[in-house]
């Protein structure tokens, strides 16, 4: 549940940042259920209204 909450907050922050500027940057850390960092993880964020996708 903690990871879901963290991912949800991360997504909300990214969407808010994209709404304020024509470009956005996202920083963060992806972790597994034990809190260990997941190396090389890819994050994909999609705006459902515009279908615009950002992959980091």
Describe this structure in words.
With 56 residues, the protein is an alpha+beta fold. It has one domain (2-55). Helix content is 34%, strand content 11%. The chain has one helix spanning 2-20; strands at residues 44-46, 53-55. It has a two-stranded antiparallel sheet with strand order 1-2. A hairpin with a 6-residue loop joins strand 1 (44-46) and strand 2 (53-55). It is globular and about 35 Å long. The two termini are 23 Å apart.
Entry summary:
By secondary structure, the chain is an alpha+beta fold.
Radius of gyration, Cα only, in angstroms? 12 Å
Tell me, what's the shape?
A: globular
* Overall structural domain count: 1
Q: Supply the number of helical segments.
A: 1
Beta-sheet strand percentage? 5-15%
Order of helices and strands: HEE
The chain-level mean pLDDT equals: 80
Spatial separation of the terminal alpha carbons: 23 Å
* pLDDT < 50 runs, ≥5 residues: none
Helix content: 25-40%
Q: Structural class of the helix and strand makeup?
A: alpha+beta
The strands making up the biggest β-sheet line up spatially as 1-2
Largest sheet properties: 2 strands, antiparallel
Write down how many β-strands occur, each being a DSSP E stretch of 2 or more residues.
2
